[in-house]
Amino acid sequence: MKVYILPIEKSLQPLNQNLLYPNHNRDYGVEQDFLKWLNTHAYLTTNNPDEADWHYLPVFWTRWHINHNFAANGEGLRELQAFVGQAIINSEKTFTITQFDGGTLIDLGETIEFTAAKTTNNGIDIPILCSLHKMPLFPVRKKFIASFNGSFDTHQIREEIRIRFTDDRSVNIAGNQTTRFYKRWLQGKQFNLNILASYVALCPRGTSANSFRFFEAMQFGVAPCLIGDIDVRPFQKFINWNEMSYYVANVDELVFLLSNLNKRDALKKGGIAKSFFRKELYYQKWCSYVIKELTELS
Questions:
Q1: What InterPro entries does the entry give (predicted)?
Q2: Among 116, 257, 268, 296, which residue is least crowded by beta carbons within 10 Å?
Q3: Is the dihedral of CA 182, 185, 190, 194 positive or negative?
């Protein structure tokens, strides 16, 4: 299979963005990561768009939208639409990588979106990644069945979790930061320690159906539990997520899961999750799954 990287207006690849999130993250994400990966796998690329199986649209959507006030009142969209329209040769054989909530926010025709933050947009799910967290020098003793640190106002399911587990000492519920960008409790220290002290990391959906926490928990070696109306664990055709994570659609299912949790099974899932994250899902690792998806679509 061959991929042609579409030439685009230089401004569609901003060098930085005005706001970083999570707040420990460096200015780098899956959009930049895939382009970097593809450029280091020359055998997959061609300079001839006619001989290519797929055309890759390498726009840095997240940086663009953040730098245009998060597309508030449509800011930046008309300019973006015009630039992208000039770049696409055939939308039926074009794909792009996006992390921004809601995806690209413009009309791309038949272009396929590989999306890390699905809201109402369609697309193929990919991981939503951030910089690695620092690990403590010594092992952390398990003292919670599960934990969640974060804001509660980005989706109703988070408020339901807060209400249901506030008086349950076996489940750590903390945070409620005012920022919408996942500012970590006590600059991240308690966020890290609470996950490590838990058998399960609660990863409820927020504005988007995905959660940074899911993949952060994998880094820590703690079994993540995605909670939301859509199961957006990525590349499900190729990855057996049930051996390393949990998924529940609502809080009632979560209560049942935690009430009947097999701790030994949770620890095993966490160990598999840590190894899989390191070998298959972190930066420069996940990109090969995009090629697998495109090969099937071809």
A1: Exostosin, Exostosin_GT47
A2: 296
A3: negative
